[in-house]
Write a structure and sequence with these properties.
The protein is built from 7 helices and 6 strands; from the N terminus they run βαβαββαβαβααα. With 231 residues, the protein is of the alpha/beta class. The chain has 2 domains: 178 residues, 3-Layer(aba) Sandwich (Aminopeptidase); 38 residues, no CATH class. A 6-stranded mixed β-sheet has the order 2-1-3-6-4-5, sandwiched between helices. Strand 4, helix 3 and strand 5 form a beta-alpha-beta unit. Helix 1 crosses helix 6 and helix 3 runs antiparallel to helix 6.
Length: 231
């Protein structure tokens, strides 16, 4: 199965930042990184990124890439905003295109539910929208808005790596449940086996330590590595 993760916007996208200048892409790219690492622990999964951390990738380029690679699922990750100043808009919502098939709605519902359970934020529901990445993709596609960066309380969460990981885990859980993905098998570590018996060879016994040391010296000269044990 081929999946494409789209971290919303880019490192230089104008305007897509909080009133205190936190970039939305800082959040979305981190969630994407965590999600990719989690997904790659499953069998028969190839994960692609639609975005780049170096430049802003146009929306058409993102969807063209997904269609060219014939990915099975496209997941866009965003953080929300209401205007450009601090306000009380809050919560999480997930979008599908109005005419997308049943599978997209099912995936959106799973991801939305898992995000709400994991974060405890307000449930704004699954909605439809004419977003480019939903309209121009030829595969199942969803877009999740993981909280408002124009809300001071939610921005504090959005900035934290623990919340970024939480969102990634919730999104991945929705994907795993939808497509019934299976974890890769890991080899069990080999157990060290202790010998049942130990056999020793004694080459000499001396009442005087000096004689034992002399014999050890002779054996070492012949390439052996003897030890002296006092009994």
């Amino acid at each position: 199965m081929k999946l494409m993760i789209d971290a919303g916007h880019g490192p230089n996208t104008p305007g897509k930042r909080s009133p205190d200048n936190y970039k939305e892409f800082t959040f979305t790219s981190s969630v994407a990184d965590h999600a990719k690492a989690l997904l790659e622990a499953y069998e028969n999964i190839t994960v692609y990124f639609a975005h780049s951390k170096k430049v802003d990738v146009p929306l058409k380029e993102r969807t063209d890439k997904a269609n060219r690679l014939k990915v099975d699922c496209y997941v866009a990750i965003h953080a929300n905003a209401y205007g450009t100043t601090w306000n009380d808009a809050k919560g999480i919502e997930t979008y599908v295109y109005p005419t997308k098939p049943k599978e997209a709605v099912e995936l959106a519902n799973r991801v939305q539910r898992d995000l709400i359970i994991a974060t405890g934020l307000e449930d704004r529901g699954v909605k439809t929208a004419d977003f480019h990445v939903l309209r121009e993709t030829n595969m199942t596609a969803i877009l999740s808005e993981c909280g408002f960066y124009t809300n001071k309380a939610e921005l504090k969460l959005i900035k934290s790596e623990s919340y970024q990981k939480t969102c990634a885990e919730a999104i991945v859980k929705g994907i795993v449940d939808q497509y019934k993905l299976k974890k890769k098998k890991t080899a069990s570590p080999k157990k060290e086996t202790k010998p049942k018996s130990l056999y020793k060879v004694q080459l000499g016994a001396f009442s005087e330590k000096s004689n034992a040391e002399k014999f050890v010296k002779e054996l070492k000269a012949k390439g052996y590595n003897p030890i002296i044990v006092k009994s």
